[in-house]
Amino acid sequence: MKKYYFIIVLCLGFIFKNYANTVLQEAEKAYDSKNYKLAITKYESLVKDGFKSYQLYFNLGNSYLRNNDIGKSIYYYELARKINPNDEDIRINLGIAASKTTDKIDAKENFFISAVKSNILTSFSTSTWALLTIIASVLFCLLVFTFFFSSSVAAKRFSFLLGCLFLITLAITYSLGYSAVNAKKENKFAIVLAKEIKILNEPTTSATTKFNLHEGTKVRVVENNGTWLLIKLDNGNEGWVKGEEVGII
Question: What global pTM score does this model have?
């Protein structure tokens, strides 16, 4: 029975893979033919079937951008960047899409400090920060071993100085990695998908409108109340919005 089960699973996996490759080729062909709506349909079907990759999200973002759907293009570029934060093409295309947004929001925090902090934390994935910390730890331990057990004075001096450097590096990578993990857990963001949405003072349809936002604007998710989200802008303004009108990154 286990043997037959394995064969069935293997066959289904093969069929599913062939299906995905076929749809992907159809999407790429539609994109090359400038039939962006068909390309979007094909790419979206792969997303709905559970496929996830930064290339898929990037191609979908490109299709939406070409179709002049700025909100969804930024949303998928952000998803692609979340998987591969160091990809230059994603960064460039995201910048192009962001330049087409309507809302220009001034940050309450110093822009330079905020930008530097964000860029440092997102320059590597959390797993990369962990790997750098492990490497720094191993090298530090090797240098400590060399310092205590080497009979050469020059080697002791060299290992001591280099050990101090790797100890500092270890502290920095651990701190940044820890901050990146916390930021990933605590800071949830969303992209406005609709052309224009109303931000309300309460999570009800009869509530008063506080202000409006337009497609592509990035907001911070403060609270999730079922079908409603409490969002906050960089300038400190906050309010409630329907969850279906934004895409959580």
Answer: 0.68
| Class of domain 2-98 (CATH, top level) | mainly alpha
SS3 239: strand
32-81, pLDDT tens digit by residue? 999 999 999 999 999 998 888 999 999 999 999 999 999 999 999 999 99
* Spatial contact of 108 and 234, defined as CB atoms under 8 Å apart: yes
Where do the structural domains in the chain lie, given as residue ranges? 2-98, 112-186, 188-248
Q: How many CB atoms lie within 10 A of CB 231?
A: 25
192 near 243, Cβ under 8 Å?
no
Residues 6+ apart with CB under 8 A from 44: 60
188-248 fold = SH3 type barrels. (2.30.30)
Q: At what angle do helices 126-149 and 153-186 cross, to 10 degrees?
A: 160
What 245-248 contacts at long range (C-beta under 8 Å, 24+ apart), as own/partner pairs, is 245/192, 245/193, 245/194, 245/197, 246/190, 246/191, 246/192, 246/193, 246/197, 246/219, 247/71, 247/72, 247/75, 247/190, 247/191, 247/193, 248/188, 248/189, 248/190, 248/221
**Rounded (5°) CA angle 81-84-85:** 60
DSSP string, 32-47: HTT-HHHHHHHHHHHH
**Cα–Cα distance measured from residue 144 to residue 165, given in angstroms and rounded to the nearest whole number:** 12
